[in-house]
Amino acid sequence: MRSLPFFRLSIALAAMLALGGCLVSDLPVLDARTGKARPLSDGDYLGCPLENGEVQAGDDCDRLKVRWEKDRRYSFVNPEEDDDPAYLRFRRVGRGGYAVQSSESDGFMYYYGAARDDGVLLVMMNCPDLPAELRSRLIERGDLEPDDEKFSVCKVKTLRGLKEAAKAYHRGDVDQMMDASILIVAAPPLEETE
Prior knowledge:
Layout lengths: L10 H9 L3 E3 L17 E9 L2 E2 L6 E7 L5 E4 L8 E9 L2 E8 L2 E10 L2 E6 L7 H9 L3 E3 L7 E3 L2 H13 L9 E6 L8
């Protein structure tokens, strides 16, 4: 499984993906009606992986063109790469908090999005990190479906399951792995060459 195709991800994020634990689905949970929040304006942004909770200086950020599409989702395009656009949908779960759905080649992956003054912090939601009581309740009701008893991967089955998981992140009930995060911030203008 890949994540936001054009971002250069930190080693910690890659390791976390290898270990599993993320929230995924085969079919979209958010659609044009349920995932139409707009926390970003159209424009140029930087997508930067975090290391030790901080953006690292250097070339780790990717320049992105972000555009709101007619079907009420965002497209993220890296003009320097030949990759297909990434498509994200946002659903508000609280003031400045969002459940975020990323379209992947083999399904969908889910993030918690925290609005910032100049962008959004995307934190990969991780099933084993959800509060045990909440996770048990969501599994019992059929809102989440774990692959195994270690919750290596949990499939999101309902909108309620996605919203409640994102709300747990929003309330601070989950210790967020900041190294499994991507900060999307407004990009400075490109310097013009003479």
